[in-house]
Each structure stands twice: as structure tokens, then as C-alpha cells.
Design a protein that fits this description.
single chain, about 130 residues, mainly alpha
Length: about 130
Amino acid sequence: MLVAGFLSVLVYRRRSRVTNLTASTGAKLGALTGVLGFGVVAAILAALAAVRSGEQIRGFVLKLLQDYAARSSDPRVLQVMEMFKTPEGFTLLVILSLIMTLIAFLIFSSVGGAIGAALLYRKDRK
């Protein structure tokens, strides 16, 4: 996503011929790229969920969580694991995962856009 944010600034600069793109504008372009990237990932995951049965996906995720919980000796981890086994807990897990993924996409893309704008910044020379 860092590279995607950087590339969005690069493409924007080439298409619009803007020479003084600030880091904050680059971060905004990167954030837009992050939202679009998250939308693509969410659409792909939704298509995969439509193709596979919900129980297969739920079973796979629960197996991964159980493997992680088996390696932990903390009783709170086991308690949280039991909560995620319920349908409501699993729904909460999916929602929290999507929110965290969106936040990560936004942060990394914004940073990439800001870096891209800062590196590519050129003052008008007369």
C-alpha cells in the first residue's frame, strides 16, 4: 500500500502536470487509493465467500484461532476464543478485521502518498 500511495501521486502528477504537490495533498491522494484498494480486496473476499460455503470459511478461521490459542497459556485468550466460536462473536471478529484492514490501508497508502509528494516535489523554476 505504500507503493500504491506513491504511484497514485506519480500518476496524478504526470496526468495533471502539477509541479507543486504538497505532502498533505499526496497523503489525501494516498488515502483515496487506500479506500479504493480496500474496496477491491473487500469485493474479492465477498466473491470468495459467495463461491465457498460460509461454514467452510468459518471452520478455517476458527481452526487458525484454535491453533493460536493452543500455543498461548493465557486464560484470557481461551475465553476470547470461546466467544469467537459463537455466531455473534464470529460476526464481531469479521467486522473488527475489516475495520482494522481499512485503517491499515488508509495509513499505509497515506504515508506512501505523502512520501511520494515529498520526494517528487519540484518548485517552479524561472
